[in-house]
Write a structure and sequence with these properties.
The chain has helices at residues 3-14, 24-35, 44-55, 59-71, 76-92, 96-103, 115-128, 132-143, 151-162. It is 67% helix and 0% strand.
Length: 166
């Protein structure tokens, strides 16, 4: 879509906190109005609607919309966001294994500012499956580069949490 539309979507999301829980439907209506401007079959429509449902506490309604956006070819940065958010919603709806399957390939994707979010959401999915050591390893590995000291130690500790003892 054009930059004007993207700017209006960005402005809508910037106003999200102006919509308390009892006005969540008004926010979703605002997003729906913007989505109605998109061409038929656009992957952005279901993505934005999924985000709106998800952000207003309805992961169950968001899951099929994220899936539709990805099936329509949403890719790049927004595609990665959709996979992260979908995995979180899957976990919230008791489908953490699907979240793990969706996010694990993202560990090998080209690096960007979403890398830590991938690891955090994957760690939550793993924890929901009782795989806390793997989740902790991911979180420590994501945290290590941001520490003012102990980066090497924390990265090693993260690796040792999942590396077979030998």
């Amino acid at each position: 879509m054009n930059q004007d539309w993207e700017d209006r979507v960005t402005a809508a999301w910037a106003s999200f906190d102006d919509y308390p829980e009892e006005r969540a439907q008004e926010f979703r209506d605002l997003i729906d109005k913007l989505v109605a401007e998109l061409p038929e079959g656009s992957a952005l429509g279901p993505f934005e609607q999924a985000c709106a449902w998800d952000s207003t506490g309805h992961s169950d309604r968001a899951v099929p919309l994220y899936q539709e956006a990805l099936a329509r070819g949403l890719d790049g940065y927004k595609g990665r966001r959709a996979r992260i958010q979908l995995s979180s919603s899957l976990r919230n709806t008791g489908r953490a294994m699907e979240g793990v399957a969706l996010l694990t390939p993202e560990l090998d994707a080209p690096s960007d500012e979403l890398d830590d979010a991938v690891r955090a959401c994957l760690a939550l999915c793993l924890s929901s499956l009782g795989r806390d050591r793997e989740g902790l390893s991911l979180v420590l590995g994501a945290l290590a580069p941001h520490l003012p000291r102990y980066q090497r130690s924390m990265a090693n500790y993260a690796r040792l949490l999942v590396e077979p003892e030998g």
